[in-house]
Amino acid sequence: MARLPFFNGGPFGMDDVMIIVAMIFTIPFTVFSVFIANAGLGKDIWHVDFDDITKVLYIYYWDEWIYFSAIVPTKMSLHFFYLRIFPKKSFRIAIYIVMGITLAYGIVFILVSVFQCSPIKTAWLRWDGTAPGHCNNINLQGWTSAAINIVLDFVTLALPLRELSQMDLWRKKKIHICIMFSVGSFVTIVSILRLQSLLKFA
User: Fold this and answer.
1) For the residues of 161-181, what is the DSSP string, one character each?
2) Main location per UniProt (predicted)?
3) What pLDDT score does 201 carry?
4) How far apart are CA 136 and CA 92, in angstroms?
5) Which tens digits make up the pLDDT trace of 129-173?
6) Cα(108)–Cα(13) distance, rounded to whole angstroms?
7) CA 163 to each of CA 20, 87, 95, 159, 167: distance values in angstroms, whole numbers, following the listed order
8) What is the mean pLDDT of residues 68-87?
9) CA-to-CA distance for 179 and 21, rounded, in angstroms?
10) More confident residue, 33 or 43
């Protein structure tokens, strides 16, 4: 929307492409989250029908890799945005390195999520112990992905701080930038709290 002509938002760039890709995956992720909550996610397992347990795990299986498909382009949208506004060569090299790590993180955990069990259907049928097959350590997978995600968030937020401090900006713009980074920091703090809850309730 911000790139439409009457908003005078500047030319359309790769940062816009990435955020559109992120939105394409975020929409089904949000829809599935509603379905999975209605099916019984978050309830005591003893109060959930057997068929609904299978349904929860089936939807959760899809939600896992869709989640990674959404957060990676979201991060890369910021990276491309940095490339748009910061011309310094050393900074751009650092951004390209972080982008490569972010992309590798996404590809690895999408594949790990899709093929977490063999056969794949064991991911949503294993809960009663009767389904044949085996699965990865799902808890370890969740902790690892969450920890890497937090590190990438911190790096993404910290990278432009030095460049911003050297820019001659109006006070109002500096305040807006501080607010923007405060929101990003809040999201990262939420991710840390989420990781703590994963470790506690796993």
Assistant:
1) HHHHHTS---HHHHHHHHHHH
2) membrane
3) 46
4) 37
5) 888 889 988 888 888 888 898 899 889 888 887 777 666 666 666
6) 26
7) 27, 10, 12, 8, 7
8) 91
9) 25
10) 33
User: 13 — phi, psi (to 5°)?
Assistant: -135, 180
CA distances from 129 to 90, 119, 121, 135, 202 (A): 54, 14, 13, 12, 18
Percent of the chain with pLDDT over 70: 76
Q: List Cα–Cα distances, 140 to 58, 90, 92, 144, 146, in angstroms.
A: 20, 35, 33, 6, 10
CB 170 within 8 A of CB 177: no
Q: How many CA atoms lie within 13 A of 42 on its CB side?
A: 7
Percent of the chain that is helix, strand, coil (3-state, to 5):
80, 0, 20
Rounded to a whole number of angstroms, the distance between the first and last alpha carbons of the chain is: 41
Measured distance CA(138)–CA(18) in Å, rounded: 28
- Which two three-digit tokens encode residue 143? 């902790």
Provide the β-strand partners of residue 118. 134
Give the predicted TM-score (pTM) of the model. Answer: 0.80
